[in-house]
Amino acid sequence: SKKCYKLLHHFFFHRVLLKAMKAAVLIQRWYRQYAARMEVRRRYTWNIFQSMEYADLQDQIKLYNFLGYLMDNFTPSSTERNLISHIFRENEVCRDAEWERYFSYNNITVPDIYSGPRLTFPLDMDQAAHLVEAFKNKQQLHSRYVLQLLLETWKLLRVLPNINRVSTCHSKEITICGDLHGQLEDLLLIFYKNGMPSLEKPYVFNGDYVDRGKDSIEILLILFAFLLVFPGDVYLNRGNHEDHIINLRYGFTKEVLNKYKLHGKRILKLLQKIFSWLPLVTVIDQRVLIVHGGISDTTDLALIARYVSALRPPKKKTPSRTNVYADSERYDEMIICKNRRGSLTFPKPFGARESFQRRSLQDFSSTVARTLGEEFEVRRRQAEFSLSSFSKSHRILSSALSSDSEPESSEFTDTCNDEWKQILDLLWSDPMSQDGCIPNEVRGGGCYWGPDVTEGFLNRHNLQLIIRSHECKQDGYEFCHNRKVLTLFSASNYYEVGSNRGAFVRLGPDLVPYFVQYQATSMTRGLSFPQNVKRTEHTALKVLREQLFVHKSDLLSFLRLIFDLTGLICLNDWASAIERVLHLDLPWRVLHPQLVSSTTDGKLDYHGWFRDLALKKPSSEHIEQTMLETLYRHRSTLETIFRIVDTDNSGLITFEDFRQTLKLLSAYLKMEISDEVINELVISTDTNNDGSIDIDEFMEAFRLVDKSRLERGKSLLKLMQDNQING
């Protein structure tokens, strides 16, 4: 009996063990399938965000090219030309002393009730740290101190080279940060984790400090303050968003004008000049190149010059000195500027892009690399700038600037277009996996460059690594091109809370990167990976519904060819039609539960599906659907034109300016917008009948709502209220 008992026990044990193993296999299989589904959702969410972002950038460059075309081809008396001329009318040909008088802060008084930080110059570390703490506590710096700090920064940048050179021998580590995009919380977290800039803690910031986020001006003021305190230990590269034209579209211009209503225009003009003087490249230990966007197969650092906007190539015009306070009639004068240190000019125009001479860093060492004596002299100037009195620094800077000879305009401008293309590549380019170098048509500017271009560039210049930013990465950083190109992005939660981590990198004398990742918001703490994916997916789907709405007419035209007599369409045909129109390469069958409210036997009523999407305000019902779609699709472009036309930055434009704005849009889109449509838009938008159009109010009218989801939300809210009453 004992033997039988043991046999039975052994039998049942193995049976239970077998069931447990089967269950474990099933659970493992289920989890793998679940993880795969979550990864699919994560990837298509990311694809949606990036597709929308790059399409918007492309629209911005197309718009600017169109406005540039108007400037180049319309007569000076043209109404359209007059509307937009001020964004090209730089008046840069004035002497710096005249600009300094224009930016003077002496007539701005600080009231006694002002409780924010008060700055005295030259700045010191304590004041810079106090400024960080003030911004952390949501205080605002008075416009007098803003202008003074910016003016001091502009003066310093004018004596710095266009290529920063940094050595790790002066410190154990150098910290490099990528895009911040107005997200002050990320910068504060970096300082918390890594320490503030100092003699022992040098930093390189790689551009795109502004736009999209709400605290761009605060980030700039903090970075400029530390630059003034530690000019030999804080290095700022220019990004593609350090451009006054880009700022019109992506929020920085609006932010400054809202925060500094009285002196915002002067602050923006001074920032425009500062952006044009920001260095483009930083080289660490002659081995690591840091640049915002990237390189191309023709990148020649010897050709780098500076421009106010990298979006518009300069014109061959002979500059003339005019007074800064006068309105110049010569609207189409582009800036003809002095060469920065670190760039060469040539007496003859260059040939085709393919024939550019490739030069190594050693080839222009006489221009960029400094002798010990020259290095000492620059360090001495920087030290005197930060430690001496204002007047002494001003004399030093003035002598440094006056020593630069005036450019030979005809010879200089012959090379401007080629130098402009070089800068565009540095600020806008992206790496790709395949060999070669092709135009970056996704963004609309710069290029895509491959591993072979990276290899050749590094070999020619005796470098080992390129660090660039410009692209959001889910982990905050990403290697490519055999780990010879590193993309670094420091703005966490860029697309949505939980969408990505930010990162910064430390480089020591061994030049081996050490990464620190983070997410700045407390909202992501405690959220699981699936919860993060779900939250981000929700925002991405909202963006996707907007795209479906603005392509409604195109989709209807295509769907009418394949629907049956009942007006229903199978999901396969629906998915194919959407992909044919939107070209987003998304798994539409997988997405259909989130995009389609109901189906019948695997088919959907596409008319009912479209009725669920509508604009917020019903007052636009009298305007034909295709026009609404067009205006909605190009609402960012429309707002950009509004901001350009609104020359006094009041947020209001007259009916006539509104009419001209829509005429400009119609010319840009190559479509007719009738006077009847314009009048209807005026009537529906001017709700208070004051004879002007409020830009923000007009843009709010073009906000999309999902009617079906809105109705479900209202029903749920009503049910909760009824339960509270009954309870």
TrEMBL record:
GO terms for biological process: detection of stimulus involved in sensory perception; negative regulation of MAPK cascade. InterPro entries: Calcineurin-like_PHP (IPR004843), EF-hand-dom_pair (IPR011992), EF_Hand_1_Ca_BS (IPR018247), EF_hand_dom (IPR002048), Metallo-depent_PP-like (IPR029052), PPP_dom (IPR013235), PPP_phosphatase (IPR051134), Ser/Thr-Pase_EF-hand_contain (IPR012008). It is an enzyme of class 3 (hydrolase). SUPFAM superfamilies: EF-hand, Metallo-dependent phosphatases. It catalyses: O-phospho-L-seryl-[protein] + H2O = L-seryl-[protein] + phosphate; O-phospho-L-threonyl-[protein] + H2O = L-threonyl-[protein] + phosphate. Keywords: Calcium, Hydrolase, Manganese, Metal-binding, Repeat. GO terms for molecular function: calcium ion binding; Hsp90 protein binding; iron ion binding; manganese ion binding; protein serine/threonine phosphatase activity. Residues 633-668, 673-708 form the EF-hand domain. Its cofactor is Mn(2+). Its EC number is 3.1.3.16. Pfam families: EF-hand_7 (PF13499), Metallophos (PF00149), PPP5 (PF08321). Belongs to the PPP phosphatase family. This is Serine/threonine-protein phosphatase with EF-hands. It comes from Cyprinus carpio (Common carp). The lineage of its organism: Eukaryota, Metazoa, Chordata, Craniata, Vertebrata.
